[in-house]
Amino acid sequence: MSVLTAVTVQLLVVLPAVAALAGLLLRRMRAVSGLVAVVAAAVALVLAVLEFAETAGRSDVVDTFGPLPVGELQIPLTMLADRTSAVIAVAVAIVGLAVQVFSVWYLRDDLRYPVFAATVSLFLAAMLLVVQSGDLVLTLVGWEVMGWCSFLLIGHVSARESARRAAYKAFLVTRVADIGFVLGIVILAGGAGSTEIGTVVAHWTGGSGTSTAALVTGNPTLTAALVLLLSGIAGKSGLVPFHDWLPDAMEGPTPASALIHAATMVAAGTYVVARLHPLFAVDETSRVVLGVLAGLTMVWAALLAFAQSDVKRMLAYSTLSQIAVMASALAFVLAPGEAPGLALGHLFSHAMFKSLLFLAVGWLSVLAGGTAFVALRGRALGRGALYWSLAIGLASLAGLPPLVGFFSKEGVLFAAEESLDGPDAALAWFLLIALVVTVGLTAAYCTRAWLLLTTEREGGLAELEAEEGQAESAEEAAPAGDESPTGAHELRPVTMAAALTVSVLAVLTVVGGLLLIPLGSGIHVGLVMAVVSLVVVGLAFVGVRAMGAAGHDPAALLGPAAADLSDRGFGFDAVYVAVGRAVTALARLVVRLDRDVVDAYPRGTASLTGIAGRAGEKAHRAAPSTGLLAVVLGVVLVAVAGVTVWH
User: CA 58 from chain center: how many Å?
Assistant: First the structure.
């Protein structure tokens, strides 16, 4: 390992964290704190590119501040530098820099912008720590810091009750899920006697070469550990049944949404599973659990995305669906390193086109004053770079060639197709069908979004009344924080830096497929599945285009009730509320039983003792009678006489 590589990786993680601290200390100097955040993100990108150049064909272990002395358990706290970590670090750094640059303009009049920029820097450091981690403890640290930062970013406009509720909801859901994540790490590390990822993988797969290695097949302890890990990953990534917090997270500013959705917290679970994929490869049960969660989530979220009245909530549901697409690749066992490469390839491409879409929508929302489709109808027309950026982003999300989304999506379809004749044939068929359905649904909601953004409102009175009702629903369900931060709308021109940021992301969405090759998966496009997916996309486009004829909203044909249910996630939030109330009621019952039943006996004994003491005290203070005094003296005399005779 070269010194340059070690220093590069260490600075890559430490620099954004230092920038976060500096930004908080300099928060009264808005321009300086913003400059610190942008420069730190830019340097992080340079360092990530340098790591990419340094790790060609090799993998290096990077020390941090030394192992922790914890008895027999080894906690080396090492980081890992290889081509995979380098490519994902580049993606994270690109999105982080784009968010920091765009936020300077987007939050120009936000008094809490320095705090926001510092939180983004810390978020960036936490994700980079997860990416570079070679130790489960470091992974856990980065994982939890991201959860805390997401709470702060979602609730950035803390004066708004809806933002506070969304932040609490995200925090509670992910914290509950993280219980399983922590327990899974404890089991894996305890069994291996080390938290170093390589040692853990070698132990549980039998690769340690010692007699203490776990059995490769049918190990219930390994199964339990991996399923527990998946519970935490499902919480962070928004897989069913933990999916409902992510659309509500749109209460945060649009740049925060781009950061959370594109390449950090919700994508972190995919990266963790990819790093630990050798463990999943030898445990069929955990792969089935992962595959079922992924299949259900990708279809369900894509269905909900179609009829959303707010474009940011549509993108949120699309993130849930695309994260599930990534996870589905990890449910397969292909050639060594191939399944993780395909999953991370889609993670990389998703980071490019999803950050592009969020920032472009943020730009458009400033011009229109909101993110509801009713407010954005036709507002993309004549916008030049913004128009084309939205077109490229939606086309890549829909999986059109030759954009990066097409190649990464086809890679996942290739993994499913290759597994049809393997031992996981049933799971492969389930996921292949789910993937094809998701391809069609994704093309459908992307087509609807494009039609609404580029078509002026038309139609009769019924259509206008339906859209007005949709607007009222959007006002209740959509994130109020995504309106223009100044309210100036057209009077507030975009800066060259912000516009250039969106344009660069559009370029990367076009040519980013070339960066998928170093991930170890290459570019896999199966002819049959490519034709099938393109036919499905074409049919979805034609169908939605016909539904949206004459400027109508295609979702309006589903009826107002369906649109309202879709906006509200089919009432899944009510399930969370019901569970919360049930837990609260149970907690109150436990408190009452503990107070009124369990503690009744000790309290009763204490009460009786107190009563007896007070009675004795009262008797002691009362004037003794002559008879009682004679009895006491008699007892004393008898006692003295007895002792004397005894001697």
Answer: 30
Amino acid sitting at position 28: R
**Residue 521 corresponds to which tokens in the numbers above?**
């998966």
DSSP 485: S
User: In 3D, which of 324, 593, 544 has the Cα closest to residue 445?
Assistant: 544
Beta bridge partners of 74: 69, 194
What mean pLDDT value characterizes the chain? 84
Task: With H, G, I as helix, E, B as strand and everything else as coil, classify residue 241.
Answer: coil
User: Measured in whole angstroms, how far is the alpha carbon of residue 68 from the centre of its chain?
Assistant: 29
**Which residues are within 8 A (CB) of 345 and not within 5 positions of it... i.e. 6 or more apart?**
407, 408, 411, 516, 519, 521
Is this structure's pTM higher than 0.70? yes
Confidence tier at 34 by pLDDT (50, 70, 90) = very high
Asked if 86 contacts 9 with a C-beta cutoff of 8 angstroms, the reply is: no
C-alpha to C-alpha distance for 373 and 353, rounded to whole angstroms: 20
Q: Are 318 and 355 in contact (CB under 8 A)?
A: no
Answer for the pair 359, 254: CB distance below 8 angstroms, yes or no.
yes
The predicted pLDDT at position 69 comes to 82
Q: Judging by DSSP bridges, how do beta strands 68-70 and 60-62 pair with one another?
A: unpaired
Two tokens, residue 170: 């995200």
561 by Cβ neighbours in 10 Å (0-12 / 13-18 / 19+) ranks as: exposed
Whether pLDDT at 284 is above 50? yes
| Backbone torsion region of residue 397, taken as left when φ is above 0, otherwise alpha when ψ lies between -120 and 50, otherwise beta | alpha
Which helix (H) or strand (E) covers residue 403, if one does?
none
Instruction: Tell me if 236 sits within 8 A of 127, measured CB to CB.
Output: no
- Which one-letter DSSP state was computed for residue 209? -
Confidence of residue 436 (pLDDT cuts 50, 70, 90): very high
Let me know the angle formed at the C-alpha of 507 by 501 and 510, rounded to the nearest 5 degrees: 145
Phi, psi dihedral angles at 488 (to 5 degrees): -80, -25
Token couple for 179: 């219980």
Cα(first)–Cα(last) distance of the chain, in Å?
93
- Distance separating alpha carbons of residues 309 and 558, to the nearest angstrom: 13
Cα(482)–Cα(474) distance, rounded to whole angstroms? 12
- The residue that leads in pLDDT, 603 or 43, is 43
C-beta separation of 108 from 91 below 8 A: no
Top-confidence residue, 224 or 57: 224
Residue 527 has pLDDT above 80, yes or no: yes
Nearest-angstrom CA–CA distance, 615 and 619: 6
Residue 540 Cα to chain centre, angstroms: 29
Other CB atoms within 10 Å distance of the CB of residue 300? 23
Nearest to 355 by CA among 508, 153, 537: 508
Number of neighbours of residue 332 by Cβ within 10 angstroms: 27
d(CA 340, CA 327): 9
d(CA 513, CA 358) in angstroms, rounded, equals 20
Residue 250 burial (10 A CB sphere; 0-12, 13-18, 19+): buried
For residue 441, pLDDT over 90 is answered with yes
pLDDT at 458: 59
